[in-house]
Input
Amino acid sequence: MANPIALITGVTGQDGAYLAKFLLEQGYQVHGMVRRSSTESFERIADVRDQLHLHQADLLDQLSLVRLIDETQPNEVYNLAAQSFVPTSFEQPLLTGEFTGLGVTRMLEAIRQVGGNGIRFYQASSSEMFGSVREEPQTEATPFWPRSPYGVAKTYGHWITVNYRESYGIFACSGILFNHESPLRGKEFVTRKIALAAARIKHGLQDELQLGNLDAQRDWGFAGDYVKAMWLMLQQDEPDDYVVATGRKHSVREFAELAFDRVGLDWTKHVVVDAELYRPADVHTLCGDAGKAQRVLGWRPQVSFPELVALMVDADLARCQGAQP
Ligand code: NAP
Ligand code: F7E
Output
């Protein structure tokens, strides 16, 4: 039998890189959608780039998506591309709505027009949809109350995925993933920002780390574990929606304490709170119940919170070796 074909939008991002490597290991022919840029941003996929088929297209351009599906004829589409940074969504709410919200409809329409019902579709939904949480822990049945333009756009993307499944019989799944991190995480997200700063301070490259809301709590897992849940969703007999989480929450303060401990430093001597980094409306606490993913998919997270912090700090320590101030 021919190798299954997967198409990943957002292949240059954190999850795209982990998913591409995982699917290659499973024997897939992997296609990645990249947008045109004057400088390439392929660092995260550099080690597998020669095994990937990359195509230029953009979530804003319907025709490019139709052409992409037509050319690649995928069995599975993983829609990971989005404007994914919450603070930017307050600065650029319209663009975030276009990429992160309407972009999902454009992908689904391209599949419906070109691919019929044979293509399996994964939508990267987010715990940010729970926002001002109605209950704890959050499950697939917890009502949404998003607190940012990003969360609102993701909520739209979630429901349009459900709607295309119900209206047109597309095998469309929405993974409601809680925060997941790794050494490939973007430097602006709080975990990577802390890990990198702890490493740089240890190496004498900086002295201070400015953070916002230290009390915010998140259910943080490892991205390498979470991409397996995405794939498992598309291997089931029926499409459905799943929460993917560890079931444990920790504060930003705890993350900082552990990260600085890892390099033998006292975080209170280096972290400075900057009110500018507070959000117009923040999500104060998130904690997911992945019981359904465990029961139906047989999925469980493998990397614990202390292991995740250590993994990230150690990777940044290695990157900082020999760096100039
Ligand atoms: P990420 O590192 O920010 O990657 C986002 C990707 O989207 C990048 O490859 C980016 O390409 C691409 N992209 C953005 N706008 C695009 C456009 N207009 N056309 C084509 N590509 C575009 O995000 P991530 O952490 O890997 O997350 C993957 C997905 O899961 C996102 O949808 C995110 O919102 C969602 N999610 C993430 C988490 C998490 O904790 N990581 C949790 C829940 C849901 P460039 O390289 O060109 O910028
Ligand atoms: O913030 C607080 C901040 O930016 C986490 C995205 O992947 O996960 C991510 O969204 C918390 C917030 O992630 C700083 O106020 C304090 O409460 O790392 P973050 P996020 O907003 O939770 C969800 C699931 C997604 O779907 C998103 O795409 O940390 N915080 N001080 C800070 N946050 C940042 N970025 N920088 C700070 O200095």
